[in-house]
Amino acid sequence: MPPSWTIAIGCDDAGSEYKELIKADMEKDPRVKAVIDCGVTKGSDDFKTPYPHTGVATARKVASGEADRALLICGTGMGVAIAANKVKGIRASVAHDSFSVERLVKSNNAQVLCLGQRVIGIEVARKLVGEWLGHEFDPTSASAAKVAVIGDYENEA
Q1: 59: Cβ–Cβ under 8 A, 6 or more apart, which residues?
Q2: Cα 4 from chain centroid?
């Protein structure tokens, strides 16, 4: 049975164009049950919200169980990734190619994909999100023990 994801999506002003286009794609994708828009939106009062706020708010949707995964977009993807990783239990990273997107999920069980609107073209971004939606982590894989170690370190704090 194919996955049926609830996806939280967020961005800052530097990622808003891609967010709107990819959000529309996901709303049509049969693997996506629902899309939760965590902002920002061009022309709205929240448009100049700094990326740390949007990154954390979006990641919290995953941490709370309201969303299965999240997609964050800023100029490079790096700022929102750093912010999202401050949320306990979240594993977020930038990925700009197919292999990285695959390993993000299959090797690291990361729930948050981060993209850079100023780094990759929109068609590449759309392709990567489509691939990301098709990848699932195998909890019986050799990577599961490594992901558990990340959780152990996180719980030390």
Answers
A1: 8, 70, 72, 83, 84, 85, 86, 87, 90, 92, 112
A2: 16
pTM for this prediction: 0.96
Output the six-digit token pair for 127: 């392709």
> Using CA atoms, how far apart are residues 151 and 76, in angstroms rounded to an integer?
26
Q: HSE (CB half, 13 Å, CA atoms) of 100?
A: 15
Q: What is the pLDDT of residues 72-117, one digit of tens each?
A: 999 999 999 999 999 999 999 999 999 999 999 999 999 999 999 9
CA distance 100 to 117: 17
What b/e sequence results for 28-64 when a residue is b if at least 16 CB atoms lie within 10 Å of its CB, and e otherwise? ebeebeebbbbbbeeeeeeeebebbbbbbbbbbbbbe
C-alpha span between 104 and 72 (Å, rounded): 14
What lies within 8 Å, CB to CB, of 33 at 6+ separation is 4, 5, 6
SS3 36: strand
Residues with a catalytic annotation lie at 74
